Amino acid sequence: MSFPKDFLWGGAVAANQCEGAYNEDGKGLSEADLLLGGNYETPRMFCSHIMKDHFYPSHQAIDFYHHYKEDIKLFAEMGFKTFRTSINWSRIFPHGDDETPNEAGLAFYEDLFKECKKYGIEPLVTLCHYEIPWGIVKNYGGFTSRKTIDLYVRYAKTVFTRYKDLVKYWLTFNEINGATTAMGQYNGIGYVAPEDLASEEPIPLNQLKDDPQKRFEGLHNEFVASALAVIEGHKINPDFMIGCMICHVTWYPLTCNPKDLLETEEKDLMFNDFCGDVQVKGEYNPLAVAYLKNHGIDTSYITDEDLAIIKEGKVDMYTFSYYMSNCVSVDPNAQSIGGNMSMGLKNPYLKASAWGWQIDPDGLKYTLKKLASRYPGVPLMVVENGLGAADSIEEDGRIHDDYRIDYFRDHIKAMGEAIDEGVPLIGYTTWGCIDVVSCGTGEFHKRYGFIYVNRHDDGTGDFSRSKKDSFNWYRKVIASNGEDLS
């Protein structure tokens, strides 16, 4: 396996899952701040106001806001070449439509990025990672309003300008394709139906009223906003590398029944490829447009002016998350995988994590080769990949996470093989390089990091940091540029 000499090894987090300090230094509420915790069996709950005596995981998270220097030093010790994080939009514009940005928020990220650069770590920054300001959700319906396009572009230009000499790599929206599903309506485009917004009682996130028409209109507005951000970003610094970010779930037909194959191709088109085609190729796939129309979506919101903007604002690189693969079948009796990502069917050839996520490193190689073929010449990055698990601390204080090392070893091998077969992969950031709040379940119990954070689902813990066995293993991997995986 031959990883490029300048390969960007690193790790990834999101502001709402790590920073905490949800109401400090002028920060406003974001959509994540209205979500209660959950677990494997209990979905996260939403309420349109902060309820007393309830635990909100994002409010303190792992307190990265006050520990970032300590954490960046640990990342440097592992040898990180890049660190992916996000800017919490409501830390810059507390309500989303404020006349001027919040200087304390701008200064925090400037200090954070300078701390990274001090150790030779390149920041990789997501502009919108499920952190739409609550004011935009409440007052504008998130990205269902075209006004939000203007607010987003103003925010993007503000941070592009402030950090033009500190940040080279940018992502416009995290897992933008999540909005193609009902579960992505809240996190993805920031829309809550009026009756849910008016409710005084918490509502399970998966029971918020779904409005497919608004979802796809909101997604289109995000396409336009992303393209405008790319255009403006290149004006501010032509050297910026600005990418999309897709949640890639690899699908296989469960059987050789041709109908299973047709069902799989449709799922692959609308979940994995639809958004990538718009952002990388700069145009809507006509098959995707036909799918929308055939499923009752009025696509008149797609204007010629918007299409011209989307064509001009193509991204420079394709980045994606990869955790699992799932099977697809037309058989109504086929077995679901279960878990909090029960989007597909059980694959009899694969093992799964304790949360039901099927472990498939070969699927990553397959996905990389498919993307390299679909988008020839476009640099690729895997910006999320990891194993959520319940770690335990031994009496001597050590944390043995061989299961995580095995997971990463197999996926890194798959990436190396893909590179040797011609895939232009330029970087890899593991998800949750330090333990964070799980987005899907709102748990601390589901841990991803090389670094253990003493923080728990009952709100206890002193936020102290401890190295897991995987910490030293990943340090060795980076030092050898992927050659030593032992």
From TrEMBL:
<protein>
    <submittedName>
        <fullName>Beta-glucosidase</fullName>
    </submittedName>
</protein>
<dbReference type="GO" id="GO:0016052">
    <property type="term" value="P:carbohydrate catabolic process"/>
</dbReference>
<dbReference type="InterPro" id="IPR001360">
    <property type="entry name" value="Glyco_hydro_1"/>
</dbReference>
<dbReference type="GO" id="GO:0005829">
    <property type="term" value="C:cytosol"/>
</dbReference>
<dbReference type="Pfam" id="PF00232">
    <property type="entry name" value="Glyco_hydro_1"/>
</dbReference>
<dbReference type="GO" id="GO:0008422">
    <property type="term" value="F:beta-glucosidase activity"/>
</dbReference>
<keyword id="KW-0326">Glycosidase</keyword>
<dbReference type="InterPro" id="IPR033132">
    <property type="entry name" value="GH_1_N_CS"/>
</dbReference>
<comment type="similarity">
    <text>Belongs to the glycosyl hydrolase 1 family.</text>
</comment>
<dbReference type="InterPro" id="IPR017853">
    <property type="entry name" value="GH"/>
</dbReference>
<keyword id="KW-0378">Hydrolase</keyword>
